Amino acid sequence: MKNKLLKQVWLLCLLLFGGFVSAQTVTGTVSEANGPLPGVNIIEKGTSNGTQTDFDGNYSLDLSSSNATLVFSYLGYTTQEVAVNGQTSINITLQEDAAQLAEVVVVGYGSTTKKEITSAVTKVDEESFNKGTINSPSELLQGKVAGLSIYNKGGNPNEDAVIRLRGISTVGSNSSPLIVIDGVIGASLNNIDPSDIESMTVLKDGSAAAIYGSRGSSGVIIVTTKKGKSGATQISYNGSVASATIANTVDIMSADEFIEAGGVNLGSKTDWLDLVTRNAITNVHNFAVSGGYDDTNFRVSTNFRDAQGILDGSGFKQFNTRFNGKTAFLDDKLKVDFNASYTKRDSDFSFNDALRYAILYNPTAPVFGDDSPYDFNSPQYGGYFETLGLFDSFNPVSIINQNSNTGRRTEFTYSANLKYLLTDDITLNGLYSEQISNYTNQEYYRTTSLYRGNAASPDRKGRARKYTGESRFKLFEIYGDWNKDFSDKLNVKLTGGYSWQQSNTSDYFISVGGFANEDTAGLDFDNALEFSNELIVLSSDLDINSNKSPDQRIIAFFGRLNATWDDAIFFNASLRQEGATILGENNRWGLFPALGLGVDLNKYLNLDGTDLFKVRLGYGVTGSLPSTYGRSQNQYGLLGSAVSLTVAGNPDLKWEEKAETNLGIEYNAGRFTSTLDLYTRKVSDFILEVPADIAVYGVGTRVENVGDLSTKGLELAVNYDIIKKDDLTYNSGIVFSTYKSTLDKFNGARTLRGNLGAPGQNDTAVILVAEGEEIGQIYGALWDGTVTNGSQNFVDVNGDGSIDVNQEIGNVGDGDLTKLGKGIPDFELGWSHSLQYKNWDVNAFFRGAFGHSLVNNFRVFYEPRVGSQGSYNLVNTEYADPNITNAKFSSLYVEKADFLKLDNISVGYTFDIKENNYIKDVRLSLSAQNLFTITNYSGADPEPSLTDRGSIDNGGFLTQAPDPLTPGIDRRYNYFASRTVTFGVNVNF
Hints:
The protein is mainly beta and about 1000 residues long. It is about 10% helix and about 50% strand. Strand 21 (about 315-330) and strand 22 (about 335-350) form a beta hairpin. Helix 6 runs antiparallel to helix 7 (about 395-400). It is globular and about 100 Å long.
């Protein structure tokens, strides 16, 4: 018994001794390309024994065996296994997971990997989209893409943002990027809900966009919507409620300050801006169901939006639904992808003028006529008080409460995409799509409304306006792909196809007045109502116009070659021949070539810690078509009672053309990624109405190809994973862009544009448009800081002993007008931060523009203490000089508008609900938009005004088309910016 016990003790001792002999401690340091890597998981393979590196990347681990294998793992890096083999010190360097270089990016007529792209292309996915209350798809990208400028000045929910890619791309045509949704060219962003978008890819340079031919000059935005996946059916709900308030306004006098300054006292104290604005509430509900089995999957979504604007009565209600289904036939050789969507939006546009008049209206005036300090016929004006006899003065509360301005838009789109695998190397693709849009806007101004209702007139009171239109679009495309590996090093892909597009539009407009009561009458219309002779004998209150386009077709043949050598040298060439019926019959066909070459130099240099060092060079030619039909044909109008030629036709009218060269450098090393693009481009043959020789053409106006524009620019995007642990990540990125555009040729024109308007500034044009000059320069008199007899004293700029500061083109250069600023920023900046800790996520995004100026139009008109304007309120900024009593535009009213704003910040928490059979997870979020802005600009919104639609006054209508050559004027009719706080919930079932 003793011997048996003794043997067991000895055996235990031997095992313990053997364990001590075979076990050991191993130490070391784990690094990545840029230095030590903290938080790396180190596990003894096959056991739960492990540790993590400290802040300096050091670790120490006791092993159970000297023959153990260590597993080093870290989020975003390739996992490595190292056999110990008795080593006591093991130092390793983890490599960045190169999967991001293999990320698939959608380009024109196909896709490629991120590494193989030879042009300037940026992809933004759902994770990187802007957060919060997003009512338009363009807002998802705002500030996220270097070179892409998106501004909705003031943030009116019923207005589309101005989108510019690399500055001005056209003067007379469509300046917004071409939209492609799930392969459908020319689709509408208004027919897609932001919640349904998976990613957006921006084709920035000519070599990327040339495959789209005559509509690619302004760039291309490719939208990919969310799709279903095979497996269990998934149901999700996204909902949010948001509250918005005015973020900033115009500094004006209170009633007491106004009286003290000598203003006309009407006995009341009224905060007009408070009465026409509100705390705006927005509700969003999104439901989606997706799933599938084997090769068949689907996704159905429904979206409801009730968005209020901060202007009382403004906003919209929108219903949107979208369906996507995919399936396969013939042993998976034939794949069918079907998409359909429908959108209905009911809008309340309200009246931006209510904001304008809330600023300038007498703060001592009463709201209602019964409170007037003198006899006032209240019923004639609907019970509201009006300052009768004053130019450009209307009760802002009456404007909103008595009048209506509404609209409805419906859009239906469907597309079917067939893909057939003919052989292992050859694929055929076919696409057919239709899009139908209907829209109606209607306004009614009551007979008791002074604003546009003519209430002060003894007759012909009231006004009704209605605009109705329809557009239809059809697209058919067929193309084939041939993908062949010729060796281990060479891959070639050929794409060739045919495209056919047709669009049709029709619309009518009617404006009638002179109602005996508030009932309106119905009228029937045809397609040329404005030519009725009866219009001549009727009052000018009657205005009728109608239009119907012919079939507008675009036919194209296109081809592309992609070649990859040694997984390091990438070549791309494309050619598109395209014809458009909208052009002159002698110039309907165009040729649009593109070339691109990229080389991953790191393949041959083998730089330490470098994942990618690619240099690429691209060149491409794109075009731009007229924005409206009939520009190449004779155009007619009424001259007296006769139909007369107004614009001469031009059978030689061709597309605008843009030739662009882009040099790009991409460098990725571990957690660091960067892209630098340098580009130069030439836009030529603008499509514009210009003076013509009457003796030759029979009329003094003709549409011709005139003008050249050149742009040089730089774009930089830098991204760094500052912290990258399994339970903690922090990423920060910066996008930077700068460009300069020069008008090289413009039909010899040299002029000042952008009249400031009335009262008193109708002859004051402030933006220089001249050959050889940078676009957007603001010119005016230079104030020397002194005042004499109520007037500003100006600098003798040319030093000739006399001062001539009339706003005339002759005083630019030769006279005393001088450059006071420019409307286009020197550079734009976006700075993003993304932090995730376990189930928490925080995102913050800063956006800024620097180097631009704005003409502060409110200050121009209402800051000088003009005695004759004692019934208008006064702007009361820090720049106001009470000694100035005569209004004159000068450098005093041109302000630097540099800004940096916290555009978006959000905090979210995701609950893991593991034990529930129905709910998978729940995420709650709180976000804020436009939380604060750092700027010295005294106006309501420092964001650039990239286009100008002219001036309106005294209740007039805004009819001028946006002019891209006149940036930099902050008009009085702009909407005011808002600050929004949003609470959101996302539930996945």
